[in-house]
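for ur thesis appendix - Puromycin resistance protein pur8. copy paste whatever u need, i formatted it the way the template wanted (i think)
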Amino acid sequence: MTSQHAPDTQTADPRRWWALAVIAIAQLMIVLDATIVNIALPSAQHDLGISNANRQWVITAYTLAFGGLLLLGGRIGDLFGRKRTFIVGLLGFALASCLGGFATTGGMLFAARALQGAFGALLAPSALSLLSITFRDPRERATAFGVFGALAGGGAAIGLITGGLLTEYLSWRWCLYVNGPIAVVTAIAASYLLRRDHIDRSHRVRLDLPGAFFGCGGLLAIVYGTSEAVDRGWGDWLVLTALSVGVAMLVVFALVERRTPHALLPMHLVRDRNRAGGALSVGLAVIAMYGLFLFLTYYLQVIKGYSPIRAGVSFLPMTGAIILSSAGIGSRLMTRIPTRALMVPGLLIGAGGMAWLTQLRVDSSYAGLVLPAEMLLGIGLGLVFMPAISLATLGVAPQETGAASAIINSAQQVGGSIGTALLNTIAASVTTGYLLTRNAADPLVQAQGAVHGYAVATAVAMGILLLAAAVAFVMIDHRPAPGEAEGETAQAEARAVA
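the 3d part is after this line
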């Protein structure tokens, strides 16, 4: 692979901490947008006359475009410059959000959400890439990734809180409008604060179009299949066809990438056991976490009668625990102990929180059961996201950070899609079986059946976190060493030039 004359990233940027604030805001926008619309969905459905059969497309359109285009978005940043891609992604995200807020029909809202996802696929990998090339000192890198990991883990809960506030006191449209001014201001700040990494035309390599077709098409098919499984079930022909096509396209993608000189996703990035183990562990953790958000949101609003804002605020302790664990504990230990010594205990603590939630009943109290479980989950997952995200780009040559970033982002996006579909399907089928042998007309029995379904699905989520812990223990063997960031980057650049 030829060098693309990436800028010198070894000199510390004096504006790097301001740059972190800009990157963090962008990351928060991306993560919370996956959940902020969930609470606003009933109001949007009513106002725009969206049918029950089509309402899922408010979520699915976003996840399809985002998950399907991540590999391409990451590589575009490598080829044309991360800063430029970051700003274009921000402004495009703002425009798409405002279009969604102005929507007068369901189709217009679906299109705007797809456009949001497409620009999000540009923004997410470039944000992580910029963070990686901005912070090279191991201790500073640990602090920066602690902040980034906290937002990656807690942003979904912040989205639920923000969605509740905006929907209850303003309008569902403000769940989309709010991105506009924030993105514009952040883009202006980024133009001044982020280091220029423009790659001139004479040093650019060709875009891997076959890789883009098979890689993005495979991810898109898998995300679509899992999204449709929510309503159709996993045995439906369309779901099975989409998943089969997706897997087949990814197999072809891997074969194509092995023979392409300018690969969309260089295979040596995937073969690294630490990077692969971190991405797989995070993907499994997200499967469990997104299912949890779904169940607790329904439990608090439908079973306990909480308002949207009260339900959103109920997630605040978990968000605080994630931030404390990631930025306060994980970032201090990341440069001192092996990475799996953070991730494995974190996943086990998270599994303990899930185990606590399996005791959920109709009359369970928030303070006595939900709150302690949230705190355990927050502390545990905070120790997982930060080191895994750091591993995603550690030791990667500057011209490949976008592709490496897309790996962990794809794991999160596909994991979220699978988690919502898989755990929702399990909960629904368990609830149906429960009601078949009881008086299903009784509202109390209906509530008991729903909560029983949530509890069983939560037990499955606990098992998934235990599996993630096993994966992290077996695959991740990274140990911190003084100056490892600089040393590994130099080695990676040497490999890339060779």
